[in-house]
Design a protein that fits this description.
The protein is 46% helix and 18% strand. The chain is α/β, with parallel strands linked by helices and 239 residues long. Helix 5 links the parallel strand 5 and strand 6. The chain binds zinc ion.
């Protein structure tokens, strides 16, 4: 059976995880990169990584939740990362639909500094703030996963040129044939930089996402699935 790893999900928000894992294993989904969104769910994510050896955790502050953070949030983040070496940082980023962009930028930069200092992989959420994002990512060169990538082919090319180690993770949005811009971006994406994710959906959906990408790129679906699997292992192993 082909194997898949979900490069971005939020298992802490799903109910009946036992059933989720069981169902995922029947379609070959055997690993999960689980992202926190605020200090409120850091410990839930950490616990999931400690109780399941196929769950890889990321903790951080999502751009929607940058307001009303506890004063010691950054110190606590640093401590948790120091005490749990396998944790990555995510999901963090910038979102033009989120709260005050300067507040977002402040929280994002603090987390990028930490990632750079600690050599951590970062999982990025970016909606409509590509200029600012590229500028900040260039200042803190670390291994980067752009989750739910929704930028154009042009932005994808720019990111590849400006960042030395970047992956593009695609969600079930690719199943919508009206998303022409996204489909164009996938056409331009080097196959060794592609990941697949469920985000808020059932992890099983990543099989369909991988198949759709193989169709868009005219590559045999088993070869595409293998490549995506190995891409995911690559960023997890060198984390
Ligand atoms: Zn997410």
């Amino acid at each position: 059976m082909l194997r898949y790893i979900d490069a971005h999900c939020h298992l802490q928000n799903l109910s009946d995880l036992k059933q989720v894992f069981k169902s995922a294993s029947t379609v070959g989904v055997c690993g999960f990169v689980c992202n926190a969104t605020s200090p409120d769910d850091w410990n839930d994510v950490l616990k999931l990584t400690q109780t399941n050896n196929n769950v890889f955790g990321c903790i951080g502050v999502h751009p929607w939740y940058v307001n009303n953070l506890p004063v010691d949030w950054l110190n606590n983040l640093r401590k948790l990362l120091q005490n749990n070496q396998s944790l990555m940082i995510g999901e963090i980023g910038l979102d033009k639909k989120g709260p005050d962009i300067l507040a977002q930028e402040d929280v994002f930069i603090s987390q990028m500094q930490l990632a750079y200092e600690m050599h951590k992989v970062v999982h990025i959420h970016c909606v409509g703030a590509w200029e600012r994002l590229v500028k900040i990512l260039k200042d803190y060169p670390v291994k980067t996963v752009l989750h739910g990538f929704s930028g154009s082919a042009e932005i994808l090319k720019r990111l590849l040129l400006s960042l030395s180690d970047v992956y593009f993770s695609f969600s079930s949005s690719v199943l919508d044939d009206r998303r022409r811009r996204l489909i164009d971006a996938i056409r331009q994406a080097p196959i060794d930089k592609i990941l697949v994710e469920s985000d808020e959906k059932s992890p099983n959906v990543i099989v369909d996402v991988a198949n759709k990408i193989s169709e868009i790129k005219s590559i045999a679906s088993d070869k595409m699935a293998d490549t995506i699997y190995n891409n995911t292992l690559r960023f997890l192993n060198n984390g």
